[in-house]
Amino acid sequence: MSPTETSERPEFDRDVVIVGGGPAGCSAGVFTARYGLDTVVFDRGRSSIQRCAFLENYLGFPAGIDVETLYDLMHDHAEEAGCDVVADLVESVEPLDDGGEPRGFVVRTQEGRTVTARRVVAAARYDGEYMRGLNDEDAMFETHEHDGETHEHFDKSYADEDGTTPVEGLYVAAPYETGYQASMAAGRGARVGITVVEDARRDRGVPEALANHYDWMRRERELTEEWADRDRWREYIHDRVPDDHGLDEEQLVEMREREIDRRFETYLDDDEVDRRTRRGQRRLLEHVDDDAVLAAARRIEAERSASEADD
């Protein structure tokens, strides 16, 4: 797991609420939770992907994968990253009033939960009805005529490509414009998750020139002598911090050292790469049918015995 930081703002129950636990929602949650944002995913258990009989075009599964196993894998991944995945239906997202100014959100669920959050990611496609209580409702929904009747639907072009919307702190990850394939939904969720992290970084005082977020691990041997020196990173950050950064000296030093720590922690030595590789394989086995695992083990043992006999 990549380095994490403390929760964004203590006055909210959560940093991020994600509505929808399908490919888009779980993908977004992996990125936000790995960064350290306190994230909950509400999944009503009726994701669009669950209407598929069998998934044959999701990259990484050469013979396809049944939807139930993929769903379990997605939720397992989100939880491993740090998300809480809650089986509940979000009924409304409303602005949290702060002295007359909306700031953050109140999320209410079918089972009576009330959660406040700094940011909300809409990753469920069920017509956006749960967003009816937001201040920009008129712009969110569009009307059209069909068979002499007027219908109203969530405007698929309401959100920008990165998921941001005119409502501060509200993001749309549901793949309205990118297409409805599961892989497209996962990609859309990843893009929105990164957007949320980058906005959180800006709020924490990270200058625009450093706000971009990269979530990948590198091999330690790629860290050259120059960049293995913390002072070189201090120079790098200093050169990119604008004069009007708005931080006092203590805040500036804290931000800078936190950034350096985060960058160094993305480099793994060979032993750690091997450890994570083995653990990753074991975690995948937890989702494979036991009979298939036993059959494979018997086949491997038979092949080894035959090889030893030949020797």
**Rg result:** 23 Å
Counting helices, strands and paired strands, the structural category is alpha/beta
SSE order, as H and E? EHEHEEEEHEEEHEHHEHH
CATH class of the largest domain: Alpha Beta
CATH topology of the largest domain: FAD/NAD(P)-binding domain
Percent of residues in helices comes to 25-40%
Distance between the termini: 43 Å
The strand count comes to: 11
pLDDT < 50 stretches: none
Task: Round the mean pLDDT to the nearest integer and report it.
Answer: 89
- Multimeric status of the protein: single chain
Q: What's the structural domain tally? A: 3
CATH architecture of the largest domain: 3-Layer(bba) Sandwich
Short description:
Helix content is 38%, strand content 19%. It is of the alpha/beta class.
Describe the structure.
InterPro entries: FAD/NAD-bd_sf, FAD/NAD-binding_dom, Ferredoxin-NADP_redctase_2. It comes from Halogeometricum luteum. Keywords: Flavoprotein, Oxidoreductase. The structure is a single chain. This protein is α/β, with parallel strands linked by helices and about 300 residues long. Strands 1, 2, 3, 4, 5, 6 and 9 form a seven-stranded mixed beta sheet that branches. The chain has three domains: about 15-205, 3-Layer(bba) Sandwich (FAD/NAD(P)-binding domain), CATH 3.50.50; about 210-270, no CATH class; about 270-310. Strand 4 and strand 5 form a beta hairpin. The protein is about 40% helix and about 20% strand.
